[in-house]
Design brief:
The protein has six helices and seven strands, in the order H-H-E-H-H-E-E-E-H-E-H-E-E. By secondary structure, the chain is an alpha+beta fold.
Length: about 200
């Protein structure tokens, strides 16, 4: 007798089978292994550090070339606007918001950072985190999210565009990475709830 999901899962199962070709059992496993987003605490640093280091090594995510220490890293972010995405209690991605200026008038503007472990890229974790970031940033009174992305980082550009960010420009040869001048593409998402 093949495994069957309860009736309440029927609509989701039909969608999952159509989009990914999942069987009922595979979809149930997928649901059970969906990411859980939680606020960051210092116990997550070891796993975040590994993901961030892999991003640095890719030369596609940041101008940083060396992994910073915890105290340096944490000071970049709004401490209450930093999250992790876990599967089976293991961190597979993280996201945070950084202030863009010390000026009071820009309190509601923040730069968004999203990192996903490369072994879990393409599995929806980035979208899951970004959706959470958008909701929680608006609850915190943030009216504009900003991102500067390497134009070669197509996955990140697609993530931002499908999350409602619009391209506002680019910076040509803004900084060197390993001695090579690199451009960045600028994206912005303006809230329709906060500051309207």
């Amino acid at each position: 007798e093949p495994f069957r999901l309860p009736t309440g899962f029927a609509l989701q199962t039909t969608f999952a089978q159509r989009k990914w070709g999942y069987t009922d059992f595979e979809y149930l496993v997928y649901v059970m292994r969906s990411p859980v987003v939680a606020p960051f605490d210092s116990n997550h640093w070891t796993e975040i550090k590994e993901i961030y280091h892999l991003g640095i090594l890719s030369r596609m995510a940041t101008f940083e070339t060396e992994l910073p220490g915890y105290e340096v890293w944490i000071k970049k972010f709004h401490a209450h606007l930093l999250w992790v995405a876990t599967i089976d209690e293991s961190v597979k991605g993280w996201a945070g918001l950084q202030p863009v200026s010390a000026r009071k008038v820009y309190d509601g503007v923040a730069e968004v950072t999203v990192y996903v472990h490369p072994d879990f890229s393409g599995k929806g974790i980035g979208s899951f985190l970004m959706n959470h970031v958008i909701i929680e940033s608006e609850r915190a009174g943030i009216w504009t999210l900003f991102a500067a992305i390497f134009p070669e980082n197509i996955a990140s550009i697609r993530l931002h565009e499908k999350s409602g960010f619009r391209k506002i420009g680019y910076r040509e040869k803004i900084a060197r990475l390993d001695g090579e001048w690199r451009d960045t593409v600028l994206y912005e998402r303006r809230s329709r709830i906060v500051g309207v």
